[in-house]
Amino acid sequence: MQNIIVVKSKDFAIRIVKLYKYLNENKKEYVLSKQLLKSGTSIGANVKEAIRGQSKPDFYAKMNIALKEASETEYWLEILKETEYIDDVSFENIYADCQEILKILMSITKTQKSDV
C-alpha cells in the first residue's frame, strides 16, 4: 500500500514543475516561479526523507520542514494569482491540492509532536 502523503507530494511536485515551465516560457516570469519551484518540490523531498528517518524526532523534524515548505508554496501561489501570472481556474486547482497537503502534514506533525 502506498503512503498517501508520499504520493500526493510527488504528484504536486510534478504539477509545480509544469507550472514553473509554463511561467518561464509563456509569462517570462523567472523570480517568483523559481521560489515556487524550490518550495513546491521541497515538500515531497522532505516527506521522502522523513519516511526514511532514523528516529521519531528525525521523522517529525523532516515532516515539519515539509509543512513549512507547503506553507511557503501556498504563499507563492497566492502572490502569482494576485499579480495575474496565473488565472483563477489554474490557481483554484493547484491551490486546493496545496491545501490538502497542508492539512495532511498538519495532522501528521500534530500527531507526531506528542510522541517526540
Q: In a nutshell, what does this entry contain?
A:
With 116 residues, the protein is an all-alpha fold.
Can you tag this structure with a few keywords?
single chain; 116 residues; 4 helices; 84% helix; 0% strand; elongated
3D architecture notes:
This protein has helices at residues 4-27, 31-51, 56-82, 88-113. It is mainly alpha-helical and 116 residues long. The mean pLDDT is 95. It has one domain: de novo design (two linked rop proteins). Helix 2 runs antiparallel to helix 3 (56-82). The radius of gyration is 15 Å and the shape is elongated. The two termini are 26 Å apart.
Question: Which SSEs are present, and which pair or pack?
Answer:
Elements: H1 4-27, H2 31-51, H3 56-82, H4 88-113
Helix pairs in contact: 1-2, 1-4, 2-3, 3-4
Low-confidence stretches are: none
Alpha-beta classification: mainly alpha
Portion of residues within helices: over 70%
In the CATH scheme, the class would be Mainly Alpha
Number of structural domains: 1
